[in-house]
Amino acid sequence: MRDALAIDLSWLLRLRWGAIVGQVALILGVHFGLGMPQRLGPLFATITVAVASNVALGLWARRERPIRQWLPWAVMALDVVLLTVLLDLSGGPFNPFSALYLVHIALSAVVLRAGWTWALTGLAISCFGVLFVNNLWFPREGGEAASTHHHIHDVRMHLEGMWAAFALAAGFIVYFVQRVTRALAAREAELVAARADSARHEKLTALATLAAGAAHELSTPLSTIAVVAKELERHLERTGAAASSLEDVQLIRQQVARCRDILTQMATDAGASRGESMVALSPAALVEEALEGLPGRERVRVEVDARAREERELVPAHAFARAIRGVVKNALQASAPEAEVRLSLSREAEGWRLTVEDSGQGMPGEVLARAGEPFFTTKAPGEGMGLGLFLTRAVLDQLGGRLVLGSTPGEGTTVRLSWPAGGLRQSAALSPEASQVQLAP
């Protein structure tokens, strides 16, 4: 926000210098070029105020200090007042340059928030009205107002209509410019979300390719190791080798089998889950499947809404259950060995919310900001590859859901998974941008 306001303030400084130069040139051109005497002293005194305020604003902008919305509004309000003084000194409502009020209003509609813009619009309308009070309704003796008094009654209605038209035009400008600005900002947010979603899909595709390639390349050497280990085991059995040697060979075979399972599961989680068939399953059954056989299951305190056992959701059951399992496993690893992990599943107006809370040490801000990136992990080597949250987010993408992470150092971490009621059937009408990841403090 500060960067945007700083840019706006920089442009405002340049525009004000341009306006000051234009005002000086216009006054001198009218006075000397057109032969229409002007009150140069008061006019240039007013412009001097604008010059001094712009110099002060430039010095302010160079310093590293917070910029608030009231500052550009105050500068524009000063410009409106100074324009009113210049117009009052050079014809009042008869001066055709009274239309310059609309420039300030249009600029504020682009730069400021709606409340500040409407406040400046009200100020501009009021200042324009002051010109009528001083020059039309109660004209001064002498000067230009007195010289034109003989035809005041002929143009009074026209000028008052100009004031009303100005107020109407100002309102339309503020309304439509604000609408267009909000629409452009919303469109930009949609484009940013679409680019982020595209980047996530590219990462998931790359991960699937990597996993499939790893499984393909490693399958042959793992098969060779398995065959050699089996032959070695048979040889040791025939020769009556020591039991410890047989145990070592059996351990090698077990670890080879485990490597195969891991590679297969990586390929499945990264890619095959995208094409997994949907099944109608209750959210409660989904949680039960996720927790089945999980080490430390007895430490998970589960609270499930009664409706979670009655309603059915069309979801990729296997991938979703593994996603929940990964979140709970992270919570168990982050908590002390004897501490509980709380899992709650509740039905809300828009869908389902599953919350997992641990009692660990929490995450600092820089770690929380990167949580969910593929292959980013703070776990010890061998405990994880940093894919759990990333794959969980990929599953929620399919359902139009979102993942919210909240963590406070020293107080633990809370992970919230939410998805629309009806599962894929409900989310099919949602755009990809409906799925997002949020970070909570």
Report on the structure:
It is a single chain. By secondary structure, this protein is α/β, with parallel strands linked by helices. The protein has 3 domains: 2-147, no CATH class; 204-273; 277-440, Heat Shock Protein 90. It is 63% helix and 10% strand. The protein has 13 helices and 8 strands. The strands form 2 sheets. It has a 6-stranded mixed sheet. A hairpin with a 3-residue loop joins strand 6 and strand 7. Helix 2 (40-62) packs antiparallel against helix 3 (70-89), helix 3 packs antiparallel against helix 4 (101-111) and helix 9 (283-291) packs across helix 10 (317-334).
Instruction: Look at the structure and give the CATH class of the largest domain.
Output: Alpha Beta
Low-pLDDT regions: 142-151, 425-441
Calculate the terminal CA-CA distance, rounded to whole Å.
19 Å
Number of domains: 3
Shape assignment: elongated
Give the neighbour order of strands across the main sheet: 2-4-5-7-6-8
In the CATH hierarchy, the third-tier topology of the largest domain is known as Heat Shock Protein 90
Strand-residue fraction? 5-15%
Q: Got a strand count?
A: 8
For the largest beta-sheet, the strand count, sense and barrel status come to: 6 strands, mixed
The computed structural class is: alpha/beta
